[in-house]
Amino acid sequence: AVLVELNLSYWSGKKTDRKTAKEVEADKGATTKALNTQKILLGDCKEHAAVVKYLARVRTWSNSVTLPWSDSGPRMLPAVKIFDYKHTLQQHEDKINELVQEFLDAYRNAIQAAQFSMGTLFDASDYPDVAEIAGKFAFSYTFTPVPEVGDFRVTIGQQGLAELRDQYEVQYTRRLEDAMKENWSRLHSALSTMSNQLRVEGKDGATSTGKLYASTLDGILELCDMLGDFNLTGDPELEKARRDLKMTLQGVDLNAAGFVRRAVADTDVDRG
Q1: Residue 270's Cα: distance from chain center in Å?
Q2: On the chain, which terminus has fewer CB atoms closer than 10 Å, C or N?
Q3: Hey, is 96 helix, strand or coil?
Q4: What separation in angstroms does the CA of 12 have from each of 45, 170, 269?
Q5: What is the pLDDT of residues 261-270, one digit of tens each?
Q6: Sign of CA dihedral 64, 67, 73, 78
Q7: In this prediction, what percent of the chain has a pLDDT beyond 90?
Q8: What are the Cα distances from residue 111, in Å, to 53, 101, 105?
Q9: 143-177 pLDDT, tens per residue?
């Protein structure tokens, strides 16, 4: 596996307004700093909202095809997925550039609309010029190898080096365990969704057969394929669970709900 760090940044279109906050605090008899006021500089500018929404979508996608490594920043990506990941990232980057350009083209008109809608809250100095705004949008990523235990490229005494190695080995083991727990969590979440779709509880407490959506079934089959690559420690239980599940669901007729319900009942992936 490798570590991938995806960096996405954008202009928020918001600015703290301490003057207005103080005025409201005084009017309401509140103490200083009791209120945090932010101005939404462009109101409901749809072009800006489209960029922000798409960036969130890219971040969600990246997290779905990688595993956690550190508390924040780099995430773990199986080496066999690097080229697929880069290819999809390129497509996302092209789309982001397109959306950003649409926003930049609409920026001046959005400022004029804000001047009308914000009344006395409008302040022209809140709005950078187009060139500065463009520089606030960024899309980049880096790949780095997963550091191995003992890979400390510093010159220290043997005792200090041993302590660092021991400390990193503990962290390395914990992070790898957390990454593998994420696999089980995704599997359990997918099956919980399927189970909830198939079992409908009535007002009288009785349950009846629900409907399994094709998108749910496709998503679980895709997850089964992904978990084959994400089983970084070769966990035999995870491999058996995902293989059995895939074999059970392949070729399932969604109209045969009873068959699918038995598949859910017979698959045990409720791991802590």
Answers
A1: 23
A2: C
A3: helix
A4: 12, 39, 41
A5: 444 444 444 4
A6: negative
A7: 24
A8: 20, 16, 12
A9: 888 776 544 444 445 555 565 566 667 667 777 88
What CA–CA distance (Å, rounded) separates 149 from 97? Answer: 40
User: What would the two tokens of residue 259 be?
Assistant: 């068959």
* Amino acid occupying residue 271: R
Q: What is the pLDDT of residues 167-223, one digit of tens each?
A: 667 667 777 888 888 888 888 888 888 888 877 666 666 666 677 778 888 888 888
Q: DSSP states of 98-112 as a string?
A: HHHHHHHHHHHHHHH
Q: Which residues, including other chains, have CB under 8 Å from residue 3's CB and lie 6 or more apart?
A: 69, 74, 75, 76, 77, 143, 144, 145, 146
For residue 235, give the amino acid letter. Answer: D
- pTM (2 d.p.): 0.66
Supply φ then ψ for residue 201, to 5 degrees.
-100, 125
Residues 210-242, buried b or exposed e (16+ Cβ, 10 A)? bebeeebbeebbebbebbeebbbeeeeebeebb
**Sheet strand arrangement including 138-145:** 67-68, 75-77, 2-9, 138-145
